[in-house]
Amino acid sequence: VSGYIKCIKDRYEQIRLEKIYGNAIAQKTSAKLESDFKKAAMTFASIIGYRDASEQEQLCLKKAEESRKDNIYSLAMTRASRRDSFEIEKAIELYRSISDWRDASEQISICQKKMEECKINEEKIRIANEKTAKKWKIGAAIFLPIIVALIAFLVVLNEVIIPTNKYNNAINLYNAGQYDEAIKEFEALDGYKDSAKQIENCNTAIKDEKYNAAIELYNNGKYSESIDAFEALDGYKDSKQQIVACQNAIMDELYQEQSKNLINVSIGSTIKFGSYEQDNNDANGKEEIEWIVLSKNGSKILVISKYVLDSVAFDDKYGTWDSCDLNFWLNMTFYKEAFGEKHKVMIKNTLVSADKNPQYNTNPGNEVHCNIFLLSINEVNRYLGSDDARKCVATAYAKKRGAYSAEAYKAYQDPCAWWLRSPGYDKDRPSFIDYLGRIDSRYRSNKCGVRPSMWIDLGS
């Protein structure tokens, strides 16, 4: 058995050695560089004693040395080809390191001769350069003062003469009223002199022109155009006050036109009084408000808007009519927006009663003086006695603001719900008119349609 095992081991060893030998032969065959031959030699050295590994190792080392000398020879040839004494001298050193290889000795002689020729040429070049440098020194002595003077002139030209001319040109444009062109010129000067201040002067002059143009529009009765012009001035001078003056003038004109139709007004008729955005198109201005006359007492008439004009929450906390947010909105925001000063003279400040809910014992709050108010349950029953009479549609603007028109009731002309001032069945739910004209309660912080009411004194 031991003999058999030894035989197996010898066979595997033979296979291993033959494989290494084959790799070494392949390395030798493909080798081109010194390092390649040395690598093959190391492989053969690892199996010395097997076949001719020792001879192959020596052959690879010889080839490695030949490759090394060939590389040095090639590098020397490259340096010798250059027309520079330093490079040729380095080539000679390389040839001397392999003087017994090829024709290195002959190349040394050739390089020595070439180096002498290069030194002669380099000397000629050096002498020529010295002569040229001498000529430049003479030229510099003559032309340098001229160049310096020219540079100084260019500096003065660019820093003083040209900017001064541009500055004067910008001033002339400003004096001629060509402010936009003057601003461009001053900006191009990049801070020269007081150009930044002059830009401010130009902008002020431009605003003055626009302000004067807006005043002229106002004086010519073109109030809407005048408002646009003043708004574009963004608060310049008293443009905000001028806008108010224009708005008042528009409302005065509207009042003069509307007051002509406030004669022989009867209950149930419709009048136009004041203005408010309704078609949801700001570009064409506000539209006249239509009011239905509910009652008449001498020269005074009680009116309610024909349409739901806006959508507002009643209150964000528990509040009765006398203290709620909607009361404040009607008598501040809406009152200011919808009426001019002459309209306001005719609107009577009224002591509005705190009517209880006929069905529920909820707190109605206190009576309060108002210019604008909402109807109570008692008043809506008195003046709008049927569900159909209480149905109302919303303007396009009110719908955008959140006034909801029920799609299910399109057959009833798209009716909209609207607030009353009376309390509902508890403190959190004021009363309102629903889509079908019925009285109900709604949560106070929800938005709902608004139909303002007021007393107008036709004799004022």
Q: If you had to describe this structure to a student in words, what would you say it looks like?
A:
By secondary structure, the chain is of the alpha+beta class. Helices cover 55% and strands 13% of the residues. It has 14 helices and 12 strands. It has a 5-stranded antiparallel sheet with strand order 1-2-3-12-5. It is elongated, with a radius of gyration of 54 Å.
Strand content: 5-15%
Please bin the fraction of helical residues.
Answer: 55-70%
Tell me the span between the first and last alpha carbons. 140 Å
Instruction: Note the run of SSEs as H and E.
Output: HHHHHHHHHEEEEHHEEEHHHEEEEE
The strands making up the biggest β-sheet line up spatially as: 1-2-3-12-5
Pairing-aware structural class of the strands and helices? alpha+beta
Total of DSSP H or I helical runs spanning 4+ residues: 14
**Unreliable stretches, pLDDT < 50, 5 or more residues?**
none
What is the residue-averaged pLDDT? 91
Q: What overall geometry do the principal axes of the alpha carbons give?
A: elongated
The total strand number stands at 12
Rg of Cα set: 54 Å
Tell me about the largest β-sheet. Answer: 5 strands, antiparallel
